[in-house]
Every structure is written in C-alpha cells, then in structure tokens.
Amino acid sequence: MSVHDVDAEEFERLVIAELDLLPDDMMDGLENVSFTVEDLPDDGNEHLLGLYHGIALTERDNYGYGELPDLITLYRVPLLAVSRDLEELKREIHVTLVHEIGHFYGLDDDALHHLGWA
C-alpha cells in the first residue's frame, strides 16, 4: 500500500495500532485524555503533525472530575506529506503520539527534542 492510498479510516486504524504499541507505563498515567484524528488543523497549517490541548499534569492544581478531557489530535494530511512509505508513516505517527503525550506529562519541546521525540 502506498502512503498516498491511506484514507481517513485506514489512518485511524494505524493510529490505534501505534497507541497499542506504546509502553504501559506511558499509557497508564493518561487520565481524562481523548485522542482524535483530523485531516488538518483549523488554521490549515500543513506542517503541524499533532497537537496537545489541555492542562499538563505538572500544571494541574485543583483539576478534578467534571473537567473536559484533554485532547491529543493527530493530523493526517501533514503526517502523510512527511512520509515516503507506510513504515515511515507508522514511525511518524508513533513519534507524534509520544511527543504529544510528553506534553501531557509536562515536557516542553526542548525536553522532547533532547529525548529524541521532537
């Protein structure tokens, strides 16, 4: 399958498969977090691969029940654009998931870059 043949449904399956491959200790700490896939960000930015929207774990004060879930979004069109083949797409999805989950845990872009996840 060519990366250009990956439709929205197949892309979502790839994201779910990559989420399943992430280490349990990374996933176990995720509380009140939703994952979603969109073609592009609302502003049409074709270079943004993913986005974490929420309150980082390290910045939560009186965070509790009734809060809207944090949201991690992966953007299909930009991820397809940076991938030459299916294996590279899977790697890019994996790195983007880890990067955005890192933001949930309070890691900034510099720390993620230092760890090799940016």
List the helices and strands and how they pair.
Elements: H1 8-21, H2 24-27, E1 33-38, E2 50-53, E3 70-75, H3 76-81, H4 86-104, H5 109-114
Parallel strand pairs: 1-3
Antiparallel strand pairs: 2-3
Helix pairs in contact: 1-4
Describe this structure in words.
- This protein has 118 residues and is α+β, with helices and mostly antiparallel strands.
- 42% of the residues lie in helices and 14% in strands.
- It has 5 helices and 3 strands.
- The chain has helices at 8-21, 24-27, 76-81, 86-104, 109-114, and strands spanning 33-38, 50-53, 70-75.
- It has a 3-stranded mixed β-sheet.
Largest sheet: 3 strands, mixed
The secondary structure category is alpha+beta
Q: Which range best describes the helical content: under 10%, 10-25%, 25-40%, 40-55%, 55-70% or over 70%?
A: 40-55%
Shape: globular
